[in-house]
Amino acid sequence: MGCTIWSSGVEGNCGKRMSSKENITHHKDGYKIAGGRVGILLVHSLGGSPDEMRYLAQAFGREGYTVNCPFIPGLTAGTDISGISTWEDWYAGLLDTFNEMHKTCDKVYVGGLSAGAVLALRLAADHPDRVEGIMLFAPTLWPNGWAIPWYFNLFKLVRERFTARLFHFRQRAPYGIKDERIRKFIFERFADANRPIEDLFGRGGGLVHQFRRLVTEVKTQLGTVKLPALIMHPRFDDQSDLSNAFKLQRELAGPVETVVLEDCYHMITLDRQRHVVVERATQFVDRLVAATARPMQGGMMAKQVVNSAAAAE
């Protein structure tokens, strides 16, 4: 699950300090679908997994796109045991996948869920000539949805990384999912008899601290992002208030298409309106691909006319 509900609870991270190589497990493979020369790179949420993007990825795959939902060391659940990764580590992992996709794809569109949307924005800001468009699914600049306790904001006072790692934030219902059937399915899939569900999908303070640092950096770049953007956000998001989407809509410098979802919570790629997410996201990319193809086709037709005229002479 993604950057979900935050609750009180502080735990000390005691024990022997280990190196990054010992604590960060690198997953070599994410979720990939082979396709054509246009690629779709999808980034999961904070402490989540590529499974969050699978339904959307399959839809793009059926459209003939090459799709990659990578495991990202440090960002993906279970890849940073002690919370020692940084947002720069996450970004480096994403950039590696992005560069790899460009070896086989002429164009790459990037989308992200929650914190993954912020990483997508960073990539778009740094590589405007190599990213064709961005899709932001329930983008989160700070967890401030209706189910998040007011005292979570006190964590903003924590400035030092070591202190941040002493915290652990537990989840609370509804865990980002409005549909009870889907929520039950996910719980059964990730059930652990030794840990309560609130802890199983919790987030370490170190992870949250690095996410805050990432957002601080990306906010300074929003006005430089001129690429077409699609924002999809729930009106009643339990984790990330709709104001997050509106801020991005105001500050991004390119054309922005905003869709407000009425019947789901934060995890929109999994919840009951996931079919709407799929429909609008695939339409968004299809339109952009078609728009970039038309000038090329027009140029080819003009060249054919000139060649035909020259042959007639």
Q: How are helices and strands ordered from N to C?
A: HEEHEHEHEHEHHEHEHEH
Terminal-residue CA separation: 68 Å
Report the strand count. Answer: 9
The fourth-level CATH homologous superfamily is: Alpha/Beta hydrolase fold, catalytic domain
Structural class: alpha/beta
Please state the overall shape, judged from the principal axes of the Cα atoms: globular
Spans of at least 5 consecutive residues whose pLDDT stays below 50 are: 1-27, 298-313
Could you say what the CATH topology is called? Answer: Rossmann fold
Q: Helix fraction?
A: 25-40%
CATH class: Alpha Beta
Any idea what the CATH architecture is?
3-Layer(aba) Sandwich
What is the typical, i.e. mean, pLDDT?
83
Q: How big a fraction of the residues is strand?
A: 5-15%
Q: Widest sheet: strand order? A: 1-3-2-4-5-8-9
Rg on CA atoms, Å: 21 Å
Question: What's the total helix number?
Answer: 10
Overview of the molecule:
- The longest helix has 39 residues, at 274-312.
- The strands form two sheets. A seven-stranded mixed β-sheet has the order 1-3-2-4-5-8-9, with helices on both faces.
- The chain has a single domain (20-312), classed as Alpha/Beta hydrolase fold, catalytic domain (Rossmann fold, 3-Layer(aba) Sandwich), CATH 3.40.50.
- The protein has 313 residues and is an alpha/beta fold.
- It has helices spanning 20-23, 54-62, 87-101, 115-126, 161-164, 180-190, 197-200, 205-219, 243-251, 274-312; strands at 31-33, 38-43, 66-69, 107-113, 134-137, 168-169, 203-204, 229-234, 256-261.
- It contains ten helices and nine strands.
- Helix 2 links the parallel strand 2 (38-43) and strand 3 (66-69).
- Helices cover 39% and strands 13% of the residues.
